[in-house]
């Protein structure tokens, strides 16, 4: 397939710049593959789609303050976006500067953090933070929240809480698992009271989630790698649900990627453990674990749009996005949500 098959025109006014007033006050577009229809709903209607014995799996990654500002030794301004912390004093990062720094060059970030450029790879720089404080603590103390590039403003106080899920736990993401932003604690408690099992995985979302596919053919695209972990209790919860006919709902494409990556690595079955995944899910992929996907609306020509097209069916997703644009749904990270039944 070609990348242009996943392109569409989106009016800029539909790109949400701020979160909804309340987490649960977004809209919900429901794609029923069983009936082949679309339904305009409110996010609070989500609970009507779940029944006792279903398991809903969330990504509990926590967004780190990965954006650091500073200057090169020569004085030129730089912006560093940490992609992944390697250890207490090393990280992979994207650097924006008028002239790209070379290996051996030095940076001065946040006015107090000396950094050496160790290496420059195809996608990321390797940086050494020459400070006694570990990198994670430096980011927390001096970094800025890395809002997506399509949000045309600086992060503010409201983003400190709203660009983070209420259940965020394990620090390591540079972007929020945005389908989870719609949940507040009251809704989670209500789902549990209704007999829905709540489970968690961790997948640290990388900056590559915002990158459009530039290859003409999607088969030529090199997928970015992300770290994930699936706890034993999550595997047990899913197996118990499947044994009694319960369904698996993945909250977000990152949750789905973690679950399906594990299944792909273990002959179709989930297994507890952690590792790296560069799984690239496109139309034609055979899903092993997830029956329903809750997700936001994704960027044109993105790997995430390809994933939801594989899950819901290419033509059904195209029709859903046309409908969402006509009905003025809000798109991307702070936008509205979509509930998709698997097309198989």
Provide a compact summary of the structure.
The chain is of the alpha/beta class and 344 residues long. It has seven helices and 17 strands.
Question: Helices and strands in order, then pairings?
Answer:
Elements: E1 27-32, E2 37-42, E3 55-59, E4 61-63, E5 67-72, E6 77-87, E7 90-97, E8 106-109, E9 113-120, E10 125-129, H1 135-142, H2 157-162, E11 170-173, H3 185-193, E12 197-203, E13 226-230, H4 232-243, E14 248-251, H5 253-265, E15 273-277, E16 292-296, H6 303-312, H7 314-326, E17 337-341
Describe this structure in words.
About 20% of the residues lie in helices and about 30% in strands. It is of the alpha/beta class and about 350 residues long. It has 2 domains: about 5-65 and about 160-340, QueA-like (3-Layer(aba) Sandwich); about 65-140, Thrombin, subunit H (Beta Barrel). The strands form 3 sheets. A 9-stranded mixed β-sheet has the order 2-1-17-16-14-3-12-13-15. Strands 5-6-7-10-9-8 form a 6-stranded antiparallel barrel.
